[in-house]
Amino acid sequence: MTRATCACCTSPPTASTARRRSACGHPAGVCRRRRTGTRMERWRRFRLKADAAGSKSTTMDFFEDYPRLESAQQERFQRVVTRLLAGEVLTPGSPLEPDPDWRFAERFRELIDSYLRIGGWGFDLDSTLRLGRAVHETGAQRVRFSKLESLVLCMLRLHYHETMRLAAEEDRCDITVGLLRERLVHAGKPIAQLSARALGHAVRRLARHSIVRIARGFDADDDEVIEVTPLVEKVLPDDRIQEIAGRIKAYVSARTPVAEQETEAESDPDTLADEPQRDPSS
Fold first, then answer.
1. How does pLDDT run across 232-247, given as a tens digit for each residue?
2. What strand order describes the sheet that includes 212-213?
């Protein structure tokens, strides 16, 4: 026996069918329009069906697992996610001052990842480099560096590669501002373009993205220390070392005679950060 249907069941949801559903002759729980529920309920039913078909629902994992955390763990979760979305990079910390957020992130990495994926992000935790960060699925958080900032980044990457090849895991990679300036000059960068103001702005920009660590009140004096973090390996992997060396030569050889004499534009942070570098051949 074929069950009768009405416009509520066969037509798309429109204003007219919405009015007719109150006069539907189907028993309660039969009419499709009567049992659709709210949009959130339909979405949850859809995700549950996807789970039954073998598709893992990370969103539902978060809604199910987060309420099971203790109150202190929920507060720690909020702190960790806030740091990640603010652009910070989680690390274990020093042996004397370990970071409790790192231990929490290691234990609940899947829960953190499931939450971040709701907004199109993901949690990248590298156990080898010992760092964790939030990464957008479409690369929306990518940063564009100026020519001087890129040159400093490449030089610090080469220094990190040379220093950490034979270093122990707990060792850190440090370089003084004076040594960094000396290496840049040795590579061919005019010293007139490496004033404390220009170099300090470039290093602070890298520190803003956790690539280096510097002391508060950093002024780029020769004796000040810059710590290069393991994140630099994620930004510029080992298999690109030769490319990095070639890029340094390209950056240095691309300068013009006028640019060698004029230092004001190079030392202006606004110019470095906002204006694109021009091709000398244009």
1. 988 888 887 788 888 7
2. 173-176, 225-228, 212-213
Cα–Cα nearest to 163, from 247, 233, 213: 233
| Residue 195 in tokens | 């004033």
Element (H, E) at 126: strand 121-126
Nearest to 132 by CA among 92, 72, 79, 173: 92
- C-beta of residue 106 within 8 angstroms of C-beta of residue 130: no
Long-range contacts of residues 236-245, Cβ cutoff 8 Å, at least 24 apart: 236/153, 236/154, 236/157, 238/161, 241/157, 241/158, 241/161, 244/154, 244/157, 244/158, 245/158
pTM of the predicted protein model: 0.58
Q: 225-228 and 173-176: which strand pairing? A: antiparallel
pLDDT tens for each residue of 78-120: 999 999 988 888 988 877 888 999 999 999 999 999 999 888 8
Domain ranges of the chain: 59-136, 147-274
Residue 148 burial (CB < 10 Å; 0-12/13-18/19+)?
A: buried
Looking at domain 59-136, does it have CATH number 2.20.100?
A: no
- CB of 202 within 8 A of CB of 179? no
